[in-house]
Protein backbone atom coordinates (compact mmCIF):
# COMPACT_ATOMS: atom_id res chain seq x y z
CA UNK A 1 0.00 0.00 0.00
CA UNK A 2 1.23 3.49 -0.88
CA UNK A 3 1.44 6.74 1.08
CA UNK A 4 -0.83 5.67 3.91
CA UNK A 5 -1.58 7.98 6.78
CA UNK A 6 -1.88 6.24 10.14
CA UNK A 7 -2.73 7.89 13.44
CA UNK A 8 -2.49 6.77 17.04
CA UNK A 9 -5.05 4.08 17.84
CA UNK A 10 -8.22 4.86 19.77
CA UNK A 11 -9.36 2.52 22.53
CA UNK A 12 -12.12 0.11 21.52
CA UNK A 13 -14.16 1.18 24.53
CA UNK A 14 -14.34 4.75 23.19
CA UNK A 15 -16.04 3.69 19.96
CA UNK A 16 -19.65 2.59 19.59
CA UNK A 17 -20.63 -0.72 18.05
CA UNK A 18 -21.69 -0.43 14.41
CA UNK A 19 -24.86 -2.40 13.73
CA UNK A 20 -26.44 -2.50 10.28
CA UNK A 21 -30.25 -2.33 10.38
CA UNK A 22 -32.83 -3.11 7.72
CA UNK A 23 -30.95 -0.98 5.21
CA UNK A 24 -27.51 0.09 6.31
CA UNK A 25 -26.17 1.84 9.39
CA UNK A 26 -27.70 5.19 10.31
CA UNK A 27 -27.06 7.61 13.15
CA UNK A 28 -27.23 11.26 14.10
CA UNK A 29 -24.63 13.47 12.47
CA UNK A 30 -21.84 14.55 14.86
CA UNK A 31 -23.13 12.17 17.52
CA UNK A 32 -22.33 8.64 16.32
CA UNK A 33 -22.25 9.45 12.61
CA UNK A 34 -18.74 10.89 12.49
CA UNK A 35 -15.82 10.76 10.07
CA UNK A 36 -14.12 8.30 12.40
CA UNK A 37 -17.04 5.86 12.33
CA UNK A 38 -17.53 6.24 8.58
CA UNK A 39 -13.88 5.32 8.13
CA UNK A 40 -14.40 2.27 10.35
CA UNK A 41 -17.27 1.14 8.14
CA UNK A 42 -15.20 1.73 5.01
CA UNK A 43 -12.34 -0.29 6.50
CA UNK A 44 -14.79 -3.16 7.02
CA UNK A 45 -15.73 -3.03 3.34
CA UNK A 46 -12.07 -2.74 2.29
CA UNK A 47 -11.04 -5.76 4.32
CA UNK A 48 -14.03 -7.75 3.07
CA UNK A 49 -13.38 -7.22 -0.66
CA UNK A 50 -9.66 -7.79 -0.11
CA UNK A 51 -10.34 -11.13 1.58
CA UNK A 52 -12.73 -12.03 -1.24
CA UNK A 53 -9.92 -11.41 -3.75
CA UNK A 54 -12.00 -8.84 -5.64
CA UNK A 55 -10.27 -5.62 -4.60
CA UNK A 56 -8.91 -5.00 -8.11
CA UNK A 57 -12.49 -4.74 -9.41
CA UNK A 58 -12.92 -1.53 -7.46
CA UNK A 59 -15.67 -0.13 -5.25
CA UNK A 60 -18.30 2.44 -6.21
CA UNK A 61 -18.77 5.30 -3.74
CA UNK A 62 -21.88 7.49 -3.94
CA UNK A 63 -23.59 10.07 -1.76
CA UNK A 64 -26.88 11.92 -1.47
CA UNK A 65 -27.77 15.58 -0.76
CA UNK A 66 -27.69 15.42 3.03
CA UNK A 67 -25.45 17.63 5.09
CA UNK A 68 -21.77 16.90 4.32
CA UNK A 69 -22.55 13.64 2.49
CA UNK A 70 -19.90 14.29 -0.15
CA UNK A 71 -17.25 14.78 2.56
CA UNK A 72 -18.23 11.61 4.38
CA UNK A 73 -18.06 9.82 1.02
CA UNK A 74 -14.57 11.15 0.42
CA UNK A 75 -13.50 9.97 3.87
CA UNK A 76 -14.76 6.48 3.01
CA UNK A 77 -12.96 6.57 -0.33
CA UNK A 78 -9.65 7.49 1.30
CA UNK A 79 -9.77 4.32 3.40
CA UNK A 80 -10.48 2.16 0.34
CA UNK A 81 -7.61 3.84 -1.48
CA UNK A 82 -5.23 3.06 1.39
CA UNK A 83 -5.95 -0.61 0.62
CA UNK A 84 -5.08 0.05 -3.07
CA UNK A 85 -8.72 -0.46 -4.06
CA UNK A 86 -9.69 1.59 -7.15
CA UNK A 87 -12.64 3.90 -6.50
CA UNK A 88 -15.50 4.87 -8.77
CA UNK A 89 -16.57 8.17 -7.21
CA UNK A 90 -19.87 9.93 -7.91
CA UNK A 91 -19.37 13.21 -9.75
CA UNK A 92 -22.44 14.65 -7.99
CA UNK A 93 -25.16 13.51 -5.54
CA UNK A 94 -26.82 10.35 -6.82
CA UNK A 95 -29.93 8.25 -6.27
CA UNK A 96 -28.86 5.23 -4.24
CA UNK A 97 -29.76 2.76 -7.00
CA UNK A 98 -27.17 4.32 -9.29
CA UNK A 99 -24.49 2.74 -7.13
CA UNK A 100 -26.20 -0.61 -7.76
CA UNK A 101 -26.33 0.16 -11.47
CA UNK A 102 -22.59 0.89 -11.55
CA UNK A 103 -21.78 -2.32 -9.66
CA UNK A 104 -23.84 -4.36 -12.13
CA UNK A 105 -22.57 -2.75 -15.33
CA UNK A 106 -18.94 -2.37 -14.25
CA UNK A 107 -18.55 -5.64 -12.38
CA UNK A 108 -17.35 -3.78 -9.27
CA UNK A 109 -16.63 -5.64 -6.04
CA UNK A 110 -19.15 -3.63 -4.00
CA UNK A 111 -20.58 -0.17 -3.49
CA UNK A 112 -20.82 2.27 -0.61
CA UNK A 113 -23.61 4.83 -0.49
CA UNK A 114 -23.63 7.66 2.02
CA UNK A 115 -27.31 8.29 2.75
CA UNK A 116 -29.89 8.02 5.50
CA UNK A 117 -32.68 7.57 2.95
CA UNK A 118 -35.93 8.82 4.52
CA UNK A 119 -34.56 9.43 8.03
CA UNK A 120 -34.79 12.89 9.66
CA UNK A 121 -32.43 15.54 8.29
CA UNK A 122 -30.27 15.27 11.42
CA UNK A 123 -29.14 11.76 10.41
CA UNK A 124 -26.86 10.25 7.83
CA UNK A 125 -26.04 6.68 6.94
CA UNK A 126 -23.79 4.11 5.31
CA UNK A 127 -25.24 1.54 2.88
CA UNK A 128 -23.39 -1.34 1.25
CA UNK A 129 -24.21 -3.00 -2.07
CA UNK A 130 -23.15 -6.54 -2.91
CA UNK A 131 -21.47 -7.60 -6.19
CA UNK A 132 -24.93 -8.42 -7.58
CA UNK A 133 -26.08 -4.83 -7.07
CA UNK A 134 -28.52 -5.92 -4.35
CA UNK A 135 -28.32 -4.58 -0.82
CA UNK A 136 -25.68 -6.49 1.09
CA UNK A 137 -27.43 -9.40 2.78
CA UNK A 138 -27.09 -10.65 6.36
CA UNK A 139 -24.20 -12.94 5.44
CA UNK A 140 -22.10 -9.97 4.24
CA UNK A 141 -23.26 -7.52 6.91
CA UNK A 142 -22.45 -9.95 9.73
CA UNK A 143 -18.89 -10.19 8.40
CA UNK A 144 -18.63 -6.40 8.17
CA UNK A 145 -19.94 -5.93 11.72
CA UNK A 146 -17.50 -8.51 13.05
CA UNK A 147 -14.55 -6.98 11.17
CA UNK A 148 -15.42 -3.48 12.35
CA UNK A 149 -15.68 -4.71 15.93
CA UNK A 150 -12.37 -6.62 15.76
CA UNK A 151 -10.56 -3.48 14.61
CA UNK A 152 -12.37 -1.08 16.94
CA UNK A 153 -9.10 -0.07 18.58
CA UNK A 154 -7.34 0.65 15.29
CA UNK A 155 -7.17 3.89 13.38
CA UNK A 156 -8.08 3.11 9.74
CA UNK A 157 -5.32 3.88 7.29
CA UNK A 158 -6.18 6.41 4.61
CA UNK A 159 -4.65 7.85 1.48
CA UNK A 160 -5.30 11.50 0.53
CA UNK A 161 -8.08 11.61 -2.06
CA UNK A 162 -6.40 14.19 -4.31
CA UNK A 163 -3.15 12.21 -4.35
CA UNK A 164 -4.96 8.98 -5.29
CA UNK A 165 -6.98 10.74 -7.97
CA UNK A 166 -3.81 12.16 -9.50
CA UNK A 167 -2.39 8.63 -9.51
CA UNK A 168 -5.37 7.37 -11.52
CA UNK A 169 -7.00 5.36 -8.75
CA UNK A 170 -10.18 7.50 -8.71
CA UNK A 171 -12.64 7.74 -11.57
CA UNK A 172 -15.39 10.37 -11.38
CA UNK A 173 -18.68 8.79 -12.46
CA UNK A 174 -21.85 10.29 -13.96
CA UNK A 175 -24.23 7.37 -14.59
CA UNK A 176 -27.06 9.28 -16.30
CA UNK A 177 -26.45 8.45 -19.97
CA UNK A 178 -25.66 4.81 -19.28
CA UNK A 179 -28.66 4.47 -16.98
CA UNK A 180 -30.97 5.99 -19.59
CA UNK A 181 -29.83 3.40 -22.13
CA UNK A 182 -30.19 0.68 -19.49
CA UNK A 183 -33.78 1.70 -18.71
CA UNK A 184 -34.63 1.86 -22.42
CA UNK A 185 -33.98 -1.89 -22.71
CA UNK A 186 -37.13 -2.66 -20.72
CA UNK A 187 -39.23 0.52 -20.98
CA UNK A 188 -40.26 2.39 -24.12
CA UNK A 189 -39.09 5.84 -23.10
CA UNK A 190 -40.06 7.31 -26.47
CA UNK A 191 -43.64 6.17 -25.90
CA UNK A 192 -43.69 7.73 -22.45
CA UNK A 193 -42.25 10.99 -23.77
CA UNK A 194 -44.90 11.15 -26.48
CA UNK A 195 -47.82 10.97 -24.03
CA UNK A 196 -49.97 14.12 -24.14
CA UNK A 197 -50.40 14.41 -20.38
CA UNK A 198 -49.18 16.58 -17.48
CA UNK A 199 -47.19 15.08 -14.61
CA UNK A 200 -46.10 16.65 -11.31
CA UNK A 201 -42.89 15.25 -9.78
CA UNK A 202 -41.81 15.80 -6.17
CA UNK A 203 -38.33 14.46 -5.25
CA UNK A 204 -38.59 16.04 -1.77
CA UNK A 205 -35.33 17.99 -2.27
CA UNK A 206 -33.47 14.70 -2.61
CA UNK A 207 -30.85 13.34 -4.98
CA UNK A 208 -33.52 12.12 -7.42
CA UNK A 209 -34.18 15.72 -8.47
CA UNK A 210 -33.92 16.19 -12.23
CA UNK A 211 -33.81 12.52 -13.17
CA UNK A 212 -37.42 11.98 -14.25
CA UNK A 213 -37.68 15.30 -16.15
CA UNK A 214 -34.44 14.50 -17.98
CA UNK A 215 -35.51 10.94 -18.82
CA UNK A 216 -38.86 12.16 -20.17
CA UNK A 217 -37.65 15.37 -21.79
CA UNK A 218 -37.97 16.19 -25.47
CA UNK A 219 -41.48 14.91 -26.13
CA UNK A 220 -45.10 15.95 -25.70
CA UNK A 221 -45.34 14.99 -22.05
CA UNK A 222 -45.33 17.97 -19.69
CA UNK A 223 -43.33 17.42 -16.51
CA UNK A 224 -43.13 19.93 -13.69
CA UNK A 225 -40.80 19.21 -10.79
CA UNK A 226 -41.02 20.91 -7.41
CA UNK A 227 -38.51 20.89 -4.53
CA UNK A 228 -35.61 20.37 -6.92
CA UNK A 229 -32.98 22.42 -5.11
CA UNK A 230 -30.61 20.99 -2.53
CA UNK A 231 -32.00 21.52 0.96
CA UNK A 232 -30.39 19.32 3.65
CA UNK A 233 -33.26 20.32 5.98
CA UNK A 234 -35.73 18.82 3.46
CA UNK A 235 -38.15 21.69 4.06
CA UNK A 236 -38.66 20.53 7.63
CA UNK A 237 -40.15 17.12 6.81
CA UNK A 238 -38.72 13.63 6.64
CA UNK A 239 -37.97 12.94 2.95
CA UNK A 240 -40.31 9.94 2.79
CA UNK A 241 -43.00 10.01 0.05
CA UNK A 242 -45.99 9.60 2.34
CA UNK A 243 -48.40 12.01 4.01
CA UNK A 244 -47.97 14.57 5.50
CA UNK A 245 -44.54 14.99 3.89
CA UNK A 246 -46.04 15.22 0.40
CA UNK A 247 -49.11 17.32 1.27
CA UNK A 248 -47.84 20.33 -0.69
CA UNK A 249 -47.64 18.22 -3.85
CA UNK A 250 -51.11 16.79 -3.16
CA UNK A 251 -52.48 20.31 -2.83
CA UNK A 252 -51.04 21.32 -6.20
CA UNK A 253 -52.59 18.24 -7.81
CA UNK A 254 -55.95 18.88 -6.14
CA UNK A 255 -56.01 22.38 -7.63
CA UNK A 256 -56.17 20.82 -11.10
CA UNK A 257 -54.12 20.80 -14.27
CA UNK A 258 -52.27 17.52 -13.76
CA UNK A 259 -53.02 13.93 -14.69
CA UNK A 260 -50.65 12.20 -12.26
CA UNK A 261 -48.24 12.86 -9.43
CA UNK A 262 -44.97 10.92 -9.07
CA UNK A 263 -43.01 11.00 -5.81
CA UNK A 264 -39.52 10.04 -4.64
CA UNK A 265 -37.80 9.84 -1.28
CA UNK A 266 -34.57 11.53 -0.23
CA UNK A 267 -32.26 9.14 -2.09
CA UNK A 268 -34.80 8.21 -4.81
CA UNK A 269 -34.88 4.48 -4.18
CA UNK A 270 -38.50 4.70 -3.01
CA UNK A 271 -41.49 5.60 -5.15
CA UNK A 272 -44.92 7.08 -4.56
CA UNK A 273 -47.85 8.38 -6.56
CA UNK A 274 -51.07 10.41 -6.41
CA UNK A 275 -54.01 10.64 -8.76
CA UNK A 276 -55.34 13.64 -10.70
CA UNK A 277 -57.41 14.78 -7.71
CA UNK A 278 -54.46 14.88 -5.35
CA UNK A 279 -55.42 11.66 -3.59
CA UNK A 280 -52.44 9.73 -2.31
CA UNK A 281 -51.98 6.24 -3.78
CA UNK A 282 -50.50 4.53 -0.75
CA UNK A 283 -47.40 2.39 -1.00
CA UNK A 284 -49.23 -0.94 -0.68
CA UNK A 285 -51.45 0.07 -3.59
CA UNK A 286 -48.34 0.92 -5.58
CA UNK A 287 -46.97 -2.58 -4.90
CA UNK A 288 -50.18 -4.12 -6.21
CA UNK A 289 -50.35 -1.79 -9.21
CA UNK A 290 -46.78 -2.57 -10.26
CA UNK A 291 -47.40 -6.30 -9.88
CA UNK A 292 -50.59 -5.92 -11.95
CA UNK A 293 -48.64 -4.06 -14.65
CA UNK A 294 -46.19 -6.93 -15.04
CA UNK A 295 -48.87 -9.63 -14.90
CA UNK A 296 -51.65 -8.09 -16.97
CA UNK A 297 -49.81 -5.88 -19.43
CA UNK A 298 -46.37 -7.52 -19.71
CA UNK A 299 -47.72 -11.07 -19.45
CA UNK A 300 -44.99 -12.15 -17.05
CA UNK A 301 -45.47 -15.10 -14.71
CA UNK A 302 -42.27 -15.12 -12.68
CA UNK A 303 -42.37 -15.10 -8.85
CA UNK A 304 -42.89 -12.02 -6.69
CA UNK A 305 -41.13 -11.32 -3.39
CA UNK A 306 -42.70 -9.17 -0.67
CA UNK A 307 -42.01 -8.32 2.95
CA UNK A 308 -44.12 -9.34 5.93
CA UNK A 309 -45.51 -5.79 6.20
CA UNK A 310 -46.60 -5.67 2.55
CA UNK A 311 -50.11 -5.97 1.17
CA UNK A 312 -52.31 -9.06 1.13
CA UNK A 313 -53.10 -8.08 -2.47
CA UNK A 314 -49.84 -9.80 -3.45
CA UNK A 315 -51.24 -13.17 -2.40
CA UNK A 316 -54.59 -12.51 -4.08
CA UNK A 317 -52.96 -11.46 -7.35
CA UNK A 318 -50.61 -14.44 -7.17
CA UNK A 319 -53.58 -16.80 -6.87
CA UNK A 320 -55.49 -15.07 -9.68
CA UNK A 321 -52.60 -15.22 -12.16
CA UNK A 322 -50.98 -18.46 -10.97
CA UNK A 323 -47.77 -16.83 -9.78
CA UNK A 324 -45.63 -17.93 -6.83
CA UNK A 325 -45.12 -15.36 -4.08
CA UNK A 326 -42.44 -15.40 -1.39
CA UNK A 327 -42.57 -13.52 1.92
CA UNK A 328 -39.42 -12.21 3.62
CA UNK A 329 -38.55 -10.22 6.73
CA UNK A 330 -38.57 -6.42 6.46
CA UNK A 331 -35.68 -4.94 4.52
CA UNK A 332 -34.32 -5.16 1.00
CA UNK A 333 -31.29 -6.95 2.38
CA UNK A 334 -33.73 -9.90 2.47
CA UNK A 335 -35.81 -9.05 -0.60
CA UNK A 336 -32.93 -8.61 -3.06
CA UNK A 337 -31.22 -11.96 -2.35
CA UNK A 338 -34.61 -13.72 -2.43
CA UNK A 339 -35.35 -12.16 -5.82
CA UNK A 340 -32.08 -13.51 -7.16
CA UNK A 341 -32.66 -16.94 -5.59
CA UNK A 342 -36.20 -17.32 -7.03
CA UNK A 343 -35.74 -15.51 -10.34
CA UNK A 344 -38.44 -13.06 -9.27
CA UNK A 345 -39.84 -10.45 -11.66
CA UNK A 346 -40.23 -7.96 -8.82
CA UNK A 347 -39.90 -7.48 -5.10
CA UNK A 348 -41.31 -4.86 -2.80
CA UNK A 349 -41.55 -3.62 0.74
CA UNK A 350 -44.06 -1.46 2.60
CA UNK A 351 -41.79 1.57 2.72
CA UNK A 352 -42.24 2.16 -1.02
CA UNK A 353 -39.18 0.31 -2.26
CA UNK A 354 -39.63 -1.84 -5.38
CA UNK A 355 -37.05 -3.80 -7.35
CA UNK A 356 -37.42 -5.53 -10.71
CA UNK A 357 -35.83 -8.69 -12.05
CA UNK A 358 -35.55 -7.31 -15.58
CA UNK A 359 -33.84 -4.21 -14.20
CA UNK A 360 -31.96 -4.31 -10.87
CA UNK A 361 -32.38 -6.58 -7.82
CA UNK A 362 -32.53 -3.41 -5.73
CA UNK A 363 -35.05 -0.67 -5.07
CA UNK A 364 -35.33 1.95 -7.79
CA UNK A 365 -37.92 4.67 -7.23
CA UNK A 366 -37.26 6.30 -10.59
CA UNK A 367 -37.82 3.08 -12.54
CA UNK A 368 -40.87 2.24 -10.41
CA UNK A 369 -42.40 5.65 -11.13
CA UNK A 370 -41.79 5.21 -14.85
CA UNK A 371 -43.43 1.77 -14.66
CA UNK A 372 -46.47 3.35 -12.98
CA UNK A 373 -46.64 5.94 -15.74
CA UNK A 374 -46.54 3.17 -18.32
CA UNK A 375 -49.30 1.26 -16.50
CA UNK A 376 -51.66 4.24 -16.45
CA UNK A 377 -51.02 4.99 -20.12
CA UNK A 378 -51.86 1.38 -20.98
CA UNK A 379 -54.99 1.57 -18.85
CA UNK A 380 -55.96 4.75 -20.70
CA UNK A 381 -55.82 2.81 -23.96
CA UNK A 382 -58.38 0.44 -22.43
CA UNK A 383 -60.69 3.33 -21.59
CA UNK A 384 -59.75 3.42 -17.91
CA UNK A 385 -58.85 7.06 -17.48
CA UNK A 386 -58.23 9.26 -15.52
CA UNK A 387 -55.82 7.66 -13.08
CA UNK A 388 -58.47 7.41 -10.34
CA UNK A 389 -60.60 5.24 -12.64
CA UNK A 390 -57.66 2.95 -13.37
CA UNK A 391 -56.99 2.55 -9.64
CA UNK A 392 -60.65 1.73 -8.98
CA UNK A 393 -60.56 -0.93 -11.73
CA UNK A 394 -57.43 -2.41 -10.18
CA UNK A 395 -59.18 -2.85 -6.82
CA UNK A 396 -62.03 -4.69 -8.54
CA UNK A 397 -59.40 -7.29 -9.41
CA UNK A 398 -57.11 -7.22 -6.36
CA UNK A 399 -59.67 -6.55 -3.62
CA UNK A 400 -59.83 -3.69 -1.10
CA UNK A 401 -56.82 -2.24 0.66
CA UNK A 402 -57.33 0.40 3.31
CA UNK A 403 -53.88 0.91 4.71
CA UNK A 404 -52.07 3.30 7.02
CA UNK A 405 -48.95 3.33 9.13
CA UNK A 406 -48.39 5.40 12.23
CA UNK A 407 -45.11 5.91 14.06
CA UNK A 408 -44.82 6.22 17.82
CA UNK A 409 -41.73 8.36 18.40
CA UNK A 410 -39.72 7.75 21.56
CA UNK A 411 -36.72 9.37 23.21
CA UNK A 412 -33.49 8.15 21.67
CA UNK A 413 -31.93 7.54 25.10
CA UNK A 414 -34.83 5.43 26.42
CA UNK A 415 -35.75 3.64 23.19
CA UNK A 416 -33.67 0.49 23.81
CA UNK A 417 -35.31 -0.07 27.21
CA UNK A 418 -38.82 0.52 25.89
CA UNK A 419 -38.16 -1.78 22.95
CA UNK A 420 -36.91 -4.53 25.26
CA UNK A 421 -39.87 -4.18 27.62
CA UNK A 422 -42.41 -4.21 24.81
CA UNK A 423 -40.78 -7.27 23.27
CA UNK A 424 -40.87 -9.20 26.53
CA UNK A 425 -44.46 -8.25 27.34
CA UNK A 426 -45.87 -9.09 23.90
CA UNK A 427 -43.91 -12.34 23.77
CA UNK A 428 -45.19 -13.42 27.18
CA UNK A 429 -48.80 -12.19 26.87
CA UNK A 430 -49.84 -11.43 23.27
CA UNK A 431 -53.29 -9.89 22.75
CA UNK A 432 -56.18 -12.26 22.11
CA UNK A 433 -58.32 -9.71 20.27
CA UNK A 434 -58.12 -6.40 18.42
CA UNK A 435 -60.79 -3.73 18.23
CA UNK A 436 -63.48 -6.13 19.38
CA UNK A 437 -62.52 -8.99 17.04
CA UNK A 438 -60.61 -12.19 17.83
CA UNK A 439 -57.10 -12.80 16.55
CA UNK A 440 -57.15 -15.86 14.28
CA UNK A 441 -53.47 -15.93 13.36
CA UNK A 442 -50.34 -14.43 14.90
CA UNK A 443 -46.69 -14.39 13.85
CA UNK A 444 -43.51 -13.31 15.59
CA UNK A 445 -41.26 -11.79 12.94
CA UNK A 446 -38.24 -13.94 12.15
CA UNK A 447 -36.02 -10.89 12.71
CA UNK A 448 -37.28 -10.72 16.32
CA UNK A 449 -38.32 -7.09 15.93
CA UNK A 450 -42.10 -7.27 15.84
CA UNK A 451 -45.42 -9.08 15.80
CA UNK A 452 -48.25 -9.44 13.27
CA UNK A 453 -51.86 -10.41 14.02
CA UNK A 454 -54.80 -11.19 11.70
CA UNK A 455 -58.57 -10.89 12.29
CA UNK A 456 -61.15 -13.22 10.66
CA UNK A 457 -61.63 -11.25 7.40
CA UNK A 458 -57.88 -11.09 6.64
CA UNK A 459 -57.31 -7.60 8.02
CA UNK A 460 -54.05 -7.32 9.93
CA UNK A 461 -52.06 -5.27 12.43
CA UNK A 462 -48.28 -5.26 12.70
CA UNK A 463 -46.19 -3.73 15.49
CA UNK A 464 -42.50 -3.43 14.65
CA UNK A 465 -39.49 -1.80 16.30
CA UNK A 466 -37.44 0.36 13.94
CA UNK A 467 -33.83 -0.65 13.45
CA UNK A 468 -32.76 2.79 12.20
CA UNK A 469 -34.75 5.32 14.29
CA UNK A 470 -36.04 5.56 17.90
CA UNK A 471 -39.63 4.69 17.08
CA UNK A 472 -42.14 1.87 16.90
CA UNK A 473 -44.03 1.47 13.63
CA UNK A 474 -47.66 0.38 13.66
CA UNK A 475 -49.11 -0.91 10.38
CA UNK A 476 -52.65 -1.91 9.51
CA UNK A 477 -54.34 -3.08 6.32
CA UNK A 478 -58.08 -3.71 6.43
CA UNK A 479 -61.17 -4.24 4.32
CA UNK A 480 -62.63 -0.86 5.36
CA UNK A 481 -61.20 2.48 6.47
CA UNK A 482 -63.06 2.29 9.78
CA UNK A 483 -61.58 -1.10 10.61
CA UNK A 484 -58.10 0.09 9.64
CA UNK A 485 -58.40 3.05 12.02
CA UNK A 486 -59.64 0.80 14.81
CA UNK A 487 -56.70 -1.56 14.39
CA UNK A 488 -54.21 1.32 14.40
CA UNK A 489 -55.73 2.73 17.59
CA UNK A 490 -55.47 -0.69 19.24
CA UNK A 491 -51.84 -0.97 18.20
CA UNK A 492 -50.97 2.45 19.53
CA UNK A 493 -52.56 1.64 22.89
CA UNK A 494 -50.43 -1.50 23.11
CA UNK A 495 -47.21 0.45 22.42
CA UNK A 496 -47.93 3.41 24.68
CA UNK A 497 -48.83 1.14 27.58
CA UNK A 498 -45.23 -0.13 27.51
CA UNK A 499 -43.64 3.27 26.91
Outline of the structure:
This protein has 499 residues and is α/β, with parallel strands linked by helices. The chain has helices spanning 35-51, 69-82, 97-106, 138-150, 161-166, 176-184, 189-193, 211-216, 247-254, 283-297, 313-321, 332-342, 365-381, 387-398, 415-428, 481-498; strands spanning 25-28, 59-63, 87-90, 110-114, 123-129, 170-173, 198-202, 222-225, 260-264, 271-274, 280-281, 304-307, 325-328, 346-349, 353-356, 402-409, 433-434, 437-438, 441-444, 450-454, 460-465, 471-478.
Detailed description of the structure:
The protein is an alpha/beta fold. It is built from 16 helices and 22 strands. The relative contact order is 0.10. It folds into three domains: 12-174, Alpha-D-Glucose-1,6-Bisphosphate, subunit A, domain 3 (Alpha-D-Glucose-1,6-Bisphosphate, Chain A, domain 3, 3-Layer(aba) Sandwich), CATH 3.40.120.10; 179-398, Alpha-D-Glucose-1,6-Bisphosphate, Chain A, domain 3; 402-498, Alpha-D-phosphohexomutase, C-terminal domain (TATA-Binding Protein, 2-Layer Sandwich). It has helices at 35-51, 69-82, 97-106, 138-150, 161-166, 176-184, 189-193, 211-216, 247-254, 283-297, 313-321, 332-342, 365-381, 387-398, 415-428, 481-498, and strands at 25-28, 59-63, 87-90, 110-114, 123-129, 170-173, 198-202, 222-225, 260-264, 271-274, 280-281, 304-307, 325-328, 346-349, 353-356, 402-409, 433-434, 437-438, 441-444, 450-454, 460-465, 471-478. The chain starts with 24 loop residues before the first strand and ends with a helix. The longest helix has 18 residues, at 481-498.
